[in-house]
């Protein structure tokens, strides 16, 4: 595990300026994509995905006004959330989640984006109920059957959504997806938009569509994303990590 995606350790004020500049660029891209799609940027929630970056970067992001933070591994997220417990942050767990980690994740996460099987619904519900918290859950949808990056098949989404909506301690927020690697993200995000429209027929309040990363936020916005998960474009390149 490395901390920080840049070589050497920049001074805090330099790092702050670097992140502020990146944030300005990302906000500019969001504004342009919204203008092109006829959408209001206020409809978009920007989640800073801080995996592999230190808690000091989370603190700088919070100082720049960001309130949403995303992490993908419990062993990294848990201490980081603890270090930042004094900050007014919402923590999003966006990575694959094993059922035996559900209890740990439920202790600090506010939103879990990667619910893709019913056993995980049960585990998260037990964990949330035990800790007296409410966890907002998104059903992760697989947009490419050939891949194994997590996610339920579109046909499995309604049953999973119903299970979340009925589970104690859980609240159904909507859907999440990652565009297929190496393919045009636009048709994939269009498929996601169709799944989301269907979901809202039965669960009108489940309006979250978490889609769009550093490389495809424009396409995600064009297809109705409400939440963007942005790492590299805000914080720089990550060192090679095991996924
Ligand atoms: C790392 C990660 C992101 C952010 O990706 P970038 O390309 O660095 O913006 C978004 N979503 C998930 C699920 C991730 O694991």
Walk me through what this model shows.
This protein has one domain: Alanine racemase (TIM Barrel). It contains nine helices and eight strands. It has helices at residues 12-37, 55-63, 74-83, 102-108, 118-131, 157-166, 185-202, 217-222, 232-235, and strands at residues 45-49, 68-71, 90-93, 111-115, 135-140, 170-176, 208-210, 227-230. It has an eight-stranded parallel β-sheet with strand order 7-6-5-4-3-2-1-8. Helix 1 packs across helix 2 (55-63) and helix 4 (102-108) crosses helix 5 (118-131). The protein is globular and about 50 Å long. The N and C termini lie close together (12 Å). The structure holds pyridoxal-5'-phosphate. Pyridoxal-5'-phosphate (PLP) binds at residues 49, 51, 72, 94-95, 178, 213-215, 229-233.
The CA-CA distance between the termini, in Å, is: 12 Å
Largest sheet: 8 strands, parallel
Mean of residue pLDDT values: 94
Question: What is the CATH superfamily label?
Answer: Alanine racemase
Widest sheet: strand ordering: 7-6-5-4-3-2-1-8
């Amino acid at each position: 595990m490395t901390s920080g995606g840049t070589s050497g350790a920049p001074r805090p004020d330099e790092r702050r300026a670097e992140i502020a500049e990146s944030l300005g660029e990302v906000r500019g891209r969001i504004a342009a994509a919204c203008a092109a799609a006829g959408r209001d940027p206020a409809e978009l929630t920007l989640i800073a995905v801080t995996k592999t970056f230190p808690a000091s970067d989370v603190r700088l992001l919070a100082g720049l006004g960001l309130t949403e933070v995303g992490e993908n591994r419990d062993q990294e997220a848990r201490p980081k959330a603890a270090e930042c417990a004094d900050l007014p942050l919402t923590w999003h767990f966006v990575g694959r989640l094993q059922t035996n980690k559900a209890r740990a994740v439920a202790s600090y996460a506010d939103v879990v984006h990667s619910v893709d099987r019913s056993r995980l619904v049960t585990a998260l519900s037990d964990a949330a109920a035990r800790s007296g918290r409410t966890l907002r859950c998104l059903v992760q949808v697989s947009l490419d059957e050939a891949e194994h990056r997590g996610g339920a098949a579109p046909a499995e989404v309604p049953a999973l959504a119903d299970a979340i909506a009925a589970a104690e301690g859980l609240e159904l927020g909507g859907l999440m997806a990652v565009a297929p690697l190496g393919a045009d993200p636009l048709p994939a995000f269009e498929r996601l938009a169709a799944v989301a429209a269907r979901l809202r027929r039965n669960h009108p309040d489940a309006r979250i569509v978490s889609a769009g990363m550093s490389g495809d936020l424009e396409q995600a916005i064009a297809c109705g994303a409400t939440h963007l998960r942005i790492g590299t474009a805000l914080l720089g390149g990550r060192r090679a990590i095991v996924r």
